[in-house]
Amino acid sequence: MHILLKIFILLVFLTILMSLITVTKSKNNTESIWTILEKNASEDIYFDENRLNENISPLAKKFINNSIKNGTKIPKTAILDIEGKMRTKIDETASWNDISSKEILSKNGFVWKAEIKSGPLILKGADYYFENNSEINFALYGLIPVVKESNKDITKSASGRLAIELIVWNPWTVFMDKNTEFKDVDSETFSVSFEIDGEPVTVYLKIDDEGNLKEVYMNRWNKLENDSYEYIPFGGTISDQLEQNGLKIAKTLNVGWNYGSREYVQTFYFNVTAADFY
User: What Pfam families does the entry give (predicted)?
Assistant: First the structure.
């Protein structure tokens, strides 16, 4: 019995050790990607509305002119402090979990480092997309791995996340790219079509008379209840703007899956409390 107890203790120790190694490895990988994105600082290129993409539509021009003042340096990278809530299921009866997070975002990718509280439980970890690869890693109290996902479907969904977040939080390099295509849909709505690592994406924006973003949506890859994947509508509304150093971005967002349909369920509430641009 004494030997069995020793074996049990040894197995527990090895399990804890392997968990810590896994968490540390994931954290180091995330930090290295963050560092790469952080070094992707913008060049000294300043916004001039007269040098906009010649194919830009009238509504797209109104939006971008409202989001950046002439003479403002065009950033490539945004670092955001984001508070909010999220549901882990597309179910309006699912409980809300509090989020405290920090994100780095550029056209090359994103890293979202977050702390998610669900009652007394706290998950710490990160989501990232970089070089056509994505991974989700969260550990209970930052110690015991509970979520670790990485496959082609996760990556495809993450590329859609990158696309829509670029539009609401870092749109300038997308709009200034000569390969980006714009199309006015109606008197308030226009589409922006571009590529994320060779994957074509189209995001729809609805703006007010001043050019402030009111709604944003797209078709995004996601898992269904039967565990298969397909494109489903994802998006939501913007209720406030954050202005800083000649730049304006969406501050408060209410977004979710099946946007625009009867099946819509708000699954995320985000509030940007601070932003830095490089």
Answer: DUF6544
Q: What distance in Å separates the CA atoms of residue 242 and residue 128, rounded to the nearest whole number?
A: 24
Largest CA distance in the chain: 82
Question: Which sequence spans correspond to the domains of the chain?
Answer: 1-277
Number of neighbouring beta carbons within 10 Å of residue 131:
10
Q: Grade residue 55 by pLDDT with cuts at 50, 70 and 90.
A: confident
| Cβ-based burial of 77 (10 A; exposed 0-12, middle 13-18, buried ≥19) | buried
For 8, residues 6+ apart whose C-beta sits below 8 A from its C-beta are: none
Residue tagged 């920090």 (tokens): 102
With 60 as the cut, is the pLDDT of residue 1 above it?
no
- Bigger pLDDT: 54 or 81? 81
Cα separations (Å) of 128 from 9, 35, 100, 133, 205?
Answer: 36, 13, 16, 8, 24
pTM for this model (two decimals): 0.91
